Amino acid sequence: MTWSDYLPAWPLQISPALWLALTLVVAVLLGEALVRHLRLPRIVGYIGIGALLGPGGLGLIPQLPVNEWRLVVDLALGILLFELGSKVNLRWLKANPWLAGTSLLEAITTFGAVFSVLVWFDVTSTAAAVVATIAIATSPAIIVRTVTESRAQGQVTDRLLLMTALNTIYAVIFHKLTVAVMHGQAGTSFVHTIFPPLYLLGGSALLAWLFGVTFERIHHHLGQHEETFSFILFGMIAFATIMASTLRLSPILVLLAAGLITRYQRKHTRTFPPHFGSAGAVLVVLMFIANGLAADLRGLQDGFLLVLLLIVVRIIAKLSAVLPLATHSGIGWRQAISLGIALVPMSSVALLLTLDTAIDFPEFAFGLGMVLMSWIVILELAGPILVQVALRRAGETPEKKA
Amino acid sequence: MSLMPFAPSRPLSIGVELELQLLSCNDYNLASSAPEILRRVAKRTHPGEIKPEMTRSMIEINTSVQQDYAGLVAELRALRDVVSDAGRFLNVAVAGGGTHPFQHWSEQKISDAPRFHYLSELYGYLAKQFTIFGQHVHLGCPGPDEALHLMHMLSRYIPHFIALSASSPFVQGHDTGFASARLNSVFSFPLSGRAPFVLRWNDFEKFFAKMAGTGVVESMKDFYWDIRPKPEFGTIEVRVCDTPLTVEIAAAIACYIQAMSRYIMVEQRMAPEEDDYLVYTFNRFQACRFGLEGVFIDPRTHQQRSIREDIMEMLEHISDHARELHAVEAMERIREILIVGNGTSWQRRAYASEHNLADVMQLQAELWMGN
């Protein structure tokens, strides 16, 4: 027998999973310390630590293999999107049509404002349109996580969830359509310009519908065993997410629509644990760390003014769409301002849409893509704080215990 | 501070106040949506009044002065519809029932008005614990002495009203075993219980002046009695009922009290005695704990029977009076409760089939809103 039979070979062969585990421990520890000290929402800590220690910051955590991370991000986002969808009551739109009006107006003004600024900065109109569609979406991840963490409840919270779900759907659909236009301009044949968005939207809708039907069946038999059911649900979400990627559909659309469909069909109330259990919660935390690690602020070097202007214009657009219809839709001015501010965060959905565009159009990745990335990082860090303050201002978080 | 003079009112006229629960349509927990609901209903014309209550997940509807069941139930339905429509517009469900089955009192938010902030300061957590939902019935009285007479005579029948309206078995996620657990929250207030045995209005004024002199009370509002006189309306107010699960039951119980009052004033004409109160808290406890199955001890004959049997007999006594008051349909509804059970038995049946209190609350809201 020799040493090498029972001692590990040197240098150690470290698997990426070990880095993942270590990152989780370190990021959560540091994030928690930061959050307690500065009294910020926890996700700010996770994203912040990821950004600080990651390749874009001090470089202490090496860049992890993209595939592992992408799976984590997709799964966690799938969980959060399904969660968002299942908290949104689409029947409300029928009882209060002003909400649908507010939502459409908000999407249109956001698109219009961002598009105008970019065109003014000499961006081509197609590229400007792609970025403007991405800017429509409020971050479902940040909204769901912050609402869960702050235990907010009330009109602003309900509307925030509804409008986030809707503007995410608009963003994905119109993003796919404008990308198709971009392909058309790049010389792709008519059939191959028209077919991709149709396949993607139709296929995603079909997969979401199948999910909804299966969900209802299983819930019928197992709904009373809440814990068992949440295990199955977790599996179903993972399956649907991976299936959507495999079929080259939109996981974002599939999971969000699946959540909305199950909520629309439901006859009984359902209470799931946040993120469908602790496994889901861990994935969500990892996703925010991953977003932090991916943070890329290089776009600020050349485009600082543009990013700043885009941030400001987008906030004004969201606010000015929510305010005029506020009283008609049944909330007061204070609440409307809170709602407008809370719609500001951008995160994973915008990030994924940007990355998708960058894969198809490499020149986008180095131009506007960089601007968009910096924009997302800033609103990812500021977003949770804005949402928390807005919901507290609206009086929708639990009162402090004296 | 002295007591207001007893205002004139039409004898046996009735008015009903109902405290309602506002619920989130997502999880059917209480939702602090009263400010938005109130703002919304202010734009609509409706009879009666819609007002805020102690915490922001409660709302109160008040009818105007009514004479009979038909008028009362029509107005209550109109009020229910206005509030329900506002609820649908705001994604808020509205329900009856005396307690919310799984709310946490500490999460409730005190309504923004000086009186509610004052009460919250004074009573501390009791104010938030007071997120319970009751029905109050006002009865017009010909004069102040008659009001006191009626108040003491009706006290004997308090268990009837509790058992018929009981709809609060669940508190903080559990079945308490009580038919009306709501009243347990009322009893923790220092000035709850019953009015002193005083039969003349000027004696009552002296009692009030003495109490006010000690600084314990400022107005009649500070007494949380089961029945109390309301001099500014010229009424007595029965306050022991849980908010029933439908407006029709609420109206029927109000008319049961009305018909009984007519029986007491026109036919029975017995003088109240202080010893009537010997069995008062025992009977009331039996009604809260066991509902219609509770034991009822007659204070004069000491005979024991179930509350259900006592109500059955009372329905016989008052049937002519009910006919005079156009309340025959209301008495039918009371009889129906004796057969199919009160709100509490409905809630327990719903829980037995749904296994989930949120689902019970969803069904309860559907029952109330009528959709």
Provide an overview of this structure:
Chain A: It is found in: Membrane. Chain A: GO terms for molecular function: antiporter activity. Chain A: It holds the Pfam family Na_H_Exchanger. The complex is a heterodimer of chains A (402) and B (371). Chain A is an all-alpha fold and 402 residues long. Chain A has 18 helices and no strands. Chain A has one domain: Na+/H+ antiporter like fold. Helices cover 78% and strands 0% of the residues of chain A. The mean pLDDT of chain A is 88. Chain B has 371 residues and is α+β, with helices and mostly antiparallel strands. Chain B is 47% helix and 15% strand. In chain B, the strands form 4 sheets. In chain B, strands 1, 2, 3, 4, 5, 10 and 11 form a 7-stranded antiparallel sheet that branches. In chain B, strands 6-7 form a two-stranded antiparallel sheet. A two-stranded parallel sheet of chain B has the order 8-9. In chain B, a hairpin with a 4-residue loop joins strand 10 and strand 11. In chain B, helix 2 packs antiparallel against helix 9. Chain B is globular, with a radius of gyration of 19 Å. The interface between A and B is medium-sized, with 21 and 26 residues.
Which geometry of chain A do the CA atoms define?
Answer: globular
| Count of discrete alpha- or pi-helical segments spanning 4 or more residues of chain A | 18
Q: Unreliable segments of chain A (pLDDT under 50, ≥5 consecutive)?
A: none
CATH arch. level architecture of chain A: Up-down Bundle
- Secondary-structure element order of chain B, N to C: EHEEHEHHEHHEEHEHEEEHHEEHHHH
Distance between the termini of chain B: 48 Å
Helical content of chain A (DSSP H or I, runs of 4+): over 70%
Distance between the termini of chain A: 68 Å
Strand element count of chain B: 13
Summarize the helices and strands and which ones pair or pack.
The complex is a heterodimer of chains A (402) and B (371).
Chain A: H1 3-6, H2 16-38, H3 42-53, H4 66-86, H5 91-95, H6 97-120, H7 125-136, H8 140-150, H9 155-185, H10 190-222, H11 226-246, H12 251-265, H13 278-293, H14 299-329, H15 333-342, H16 348-360, H17 362-366, H18 368-393
Chain B: E1 14-24, H1 34-41, E2 49-52, E3 58-62, H2 69-89, E4 92-95, H3 114-123, H4 125-129, E5 134-140, H5 144-155, H6 158-165, E6 170-171, E7 174-175, H7 182-187, E8 192-193, H8 201-214, E9 224-225, E10 227-230, E11 235-242, H9 247-268, H10 280-290, E12 295-297, E13 304-306, H11 307-324, H12 328-340, H13 343-354, H14 357-369
Parallel strand pairs in B: 8-9
Antiparallel strand pairs in B: 1-3, 1-4, 1-5, 2-3, 5-11, 6-7, 10-11, 12-13
